Structure prediction request, 538 residues.
Amino acid sequence: MFGPSSHVDTFARDNLPPVDQWPELSFDGVPELAYPERINCASELLDKMVSSGSASDPLFHTVDGIITYGEFLSRSNRIAQVLKDDMGLVPGNRVLLRGANTPELAAAWFGVVKSGGICVTTMPLLRERELSFILRKAEVRHCLCDEAWSDEIKLAQKSVPNLSNVMYFGNPDASLEKAMSSKSDAFENLLTSADDVVLIAFTSGTTGDPKATMHFHRDVMAICDCFPNYVLKPSAADVFTGTPPFAFTFGLGAVLLFPMRFGASIALIDKPSPDNLLSAIQDRKATICFTSPTAYRALMDNLDQFDISSLKKCVSAGETLPLPTYEAWLAKTGIKIIDGIGATEMLHIFISASGNEIRPGATGKVVPGYDARVVDESGVEVEPGTVGLLAVRGPTGCRYLSDDRQRKYVRNGWNYTGDAYKMDDDGYFWFHSRADDMIISSGYNISGVEVERALLEHPNVKECGVVGVPDVKRGNIVKAFIVPREKIDMPEAAVKELQDFVKAEIAPYKYPRAVQFVSELPKTETGKLQRFKLREIG
Prediction:
């Protein structure tokens, strides 16, 4: 399966799991998946669009005007040259990318890919300790960072001295912009192997430490040629918008790669909020929107204040789409939300349905190119209507970077997503629950163990347990049960102190929105925390 690598730095390939632990990959049934042995996804998504006549077509709609495909290619090429000539990047080096969803961050992503680097895109809200873990795990030495998000990177440099090559962008005086000014707008992309790693995406796991998922150039192309091609069905006239960040593979596909594959344009949102999303739809005439169920619920509060008549299609992922949200959005807009399930390990959506194929309340059917089934704990497929574990395979799949948890996610060639589902007689998949301890709140994946670790660093936290509890607006919220070391005299003040403490230690969206002080935590005889009992308490 492996072709000769074009990477000089072989770290990524050296740290792939053994091939016998990979999921079974399939490229049958979808002719678009027949990629050549050597392919650079940046060439396919950008350079070929320009050479085929789209140079003057709009790519990004910004408050300052239009950025065309040709202009974006020039910027990406200059960044690639800076990486190669000024930052000493060699093919296979990892590059940390940090910033909000902007054309500049998008150009940085393409610049890395063009030069044969590996993108490690991170959430802007991550703190120094989270960034340091990522930098060490992926052995990152290069970074392109928006100046607006530089503080935590500068702190991380102190604890990870190997991060020696950092450039900043975001204004004409920034170091990256200055370096780009002397570069040509032409660049010869590295012709990578189709199975060279192009991105490492980190996802929180229930065991606490983030897992690093590695995806190839052909994986990027596969997600562009499956869900959007067969379910979403966009055209070059479409304008994409949405809130998920590039650091989430959901966002990377939704508001960058998918529209570029079809020659469409994008209205990026660097500061996600309901009003900013509605403004983007109204002012830039967006036709396709990607966001979470929580966001769709929030959008309905101010929907009447905006003209969203340009909107034609809406996609929801990141958490299950509640039927009441689907029905309320349909009643207000006349648009049937396209639900979907994906995973960082799978790169993007693999079960979905659109138009008349939508069955309200169901996630959908298997996307062409993929195969899915519901199985019991032994991996045996269960009868339709029976709840079991969701297993999936296709042209993409889980490959953790040097992680024993590979064996848990991939079993007998199938990817186990950690979701409990049932499938009906017509092949529709219906979500039941999460099968693990991941907390999904407002579309964010949050590890309860990671929040526990942060809380345990507070001097007055003796023990704690963190779980997700149902919430009408957010789907779930993070709730912490805490055994304090000293008596709590002012509970409200103590709760706020703990919440602020967590916000300062890890990404603020992970903080416990509910805190309950208890005298003891439920445990097994061996001392293991029984989180299911905490969920029963609520």
